[in-house]
Amino acid sequence: MNDFLKGALLILLTVLLQTSVLPQYLAVAYKPDLLLVLVVYLALRAPVGVSLPAAYGLGLLKDSLGGIYLGMNGFSFLVVYLVLKALSDRLYVQSAILFVLTVSVATVSVLVINLLLLVVFSQGGGLIASMLANLAPHLLMNAFVASLITALPFYSRPWNARC
Length: 163
Fold this sequence. Notes:
The chain is mainly α. It is 74% helix and 0% strand. The chain is globular, with a radius of gyration of 15 Å.
């Protein structure tokens, strides 16, 4: 139960930071996606029983807090999670550079998946131009946040030694 409370507190702090604090100081294009960074961390470091429901739940949480369509980010987070989980056994997951690179690839992947879903299921024009205009700042901010996470002391510890 202690791990559950720590995880719930981490998610609550992440959501409060992303929805309340960061919008006050950063423009929309420069706001990092902290929930996606958390999903990448869980995919690389946590066991499947914990991280699979968390990945989908974090995507649904992002949709419910400010998404266009409910389930779009849930689906894209889940696809990115499943690909990363399949690759995590073959990667050296304690590498800081690899984590930053993985967050960058996941950011682009979520954008592409969301763009494909919007093109297929909506009729709005100019989607590609508007999403690509914000890609570079969003990608750089996510990579910066990922690099800050690798500097924290808990990053180098194994998952089972987190308590």
